[in-house]
# Entry
Amino acid sequence: MLTRRTLLSSALAAPALLRSQAARRPNLIIAISDDQSFAHAAGPGFDRVAQTGVRFTQAICASPGCAPSRAAILTGKYPWQLEEAGTHASLFPRKLAVYPELLEKAGYAVGLTGKGAGPCNFKDTGWPHNPAGAAAPDFDSFLKTRAKDQPFCYWYGAKEPHRPYAPGAGVRAGKNLADIVVPPFLPDNDAVRSDLADYHAAIDAYQRQLAAILDTLERAGELENTLVVATSDNGMSFPGAKAQMREYGIHVPLAIQWPARVKGGRTCDELVSLADLAPTFLDAAGVAPPPDLPAKSLLPCLTAAKPLNRPYVLSGRERHSHARADLLGYPARAMRTRQYLYVRNFAPARWPAGDAPGYFDIDAGPTKAWMIAHRNDAGVQPLFDAAFARHTAEELFDIQKDPGCLTNLNSSPLHRNLMREFRRTLDTQLRAQGDPRLGADPNIWESYPRHSPTRPELGGFSTAGAYNPAYQKK
# Structure
């Protein structure tokens, strides 16, 4: 029976418990999906984090491909600052400082389930395990390995919603094709709607895993003092999104909660980069970040709602798949403001989606196959060209009016001064950050080895795991 004294003791103990949790170093979790665009964040896991914490509406990944984006998350640097780790399926240099290792040295238990850094080769550069942490079968198993009251840093890398999808999985899961919202850069037909439904069903699987992690945290009594990040590495695996410097390729979902320190139920419309997550985690843990990080901690914004006042964030890409002869990539950099996306394509003579007929920088799937087969149909050709055809050296999109990035404003007289400003600012930032594309050896990127399978049929240099001697520094 609850007495008045018991109730009073409980009431006094509750704030003391909260104060005690707030004084401890926080636990840190990132739950990262694989290939999910900003418009498709809703679900029981993500919504729970957003409602308890802060939903960021303008989160931009550092690259529209998984390996360089994940490397930026781990280091707090942009891909053009990371040598081989700044491209897809190459090496991950041992000299790079990553936040999980810094936290481990500071006494944190560190673990990884699923996809961490990569795809990349970290073993040949001397890493004892994936730079995101030592492998654990699942979150429950990881928690059992830590010492009592030891703070932990955990990375859950979902395989969803990466392709391939089981055809018809969306409909079997109860998705109604009539309810599917087709992005403006894709054709609207049943084949595409069914493909999108399968994509949404795969997102649901990620959402269930995220919700399960939150449930485990709550049962363990660790939910209050855990900073949880829910996000994705890059945009959806459809033509005109993933691996492309487009809004649906770089704009991703992001929500962060930390009940002990962060007031929940808020929305933040500030421009943020996923590279900001590394200094945020280190800041929350009281660990000094490496010097000269271009990324900044989001903690002031989270805990005190202080504005970031950023006018822009940056993103970029090099090689994604083996999609061109000689293992060449598609070098591009972008500046994203609240209204505009400015893109610099350094090799506009190349095909951004990869050479025909494979277009291997776009993952295989029903939508890609349908668009190739119907490329000359009325109404399809402009969409096909936007995703598959060559791009101009400079592009400008008003993403508020044109989120599908279908209308290039680069030659608009009304935007001439804006283009000049973007060009100057991007050059200044990339030079200050040491981007080789603007340095003395711009083609060093073409030399970096690919450790995933290659396609010799594309011609030229295609030796897996080897540096291309034609582009190595002399």
Notes: The chain has two domains: 24-300, 315-458. The first strand starts at residue 27 and ends at 33. The mean pLDDT is 94.
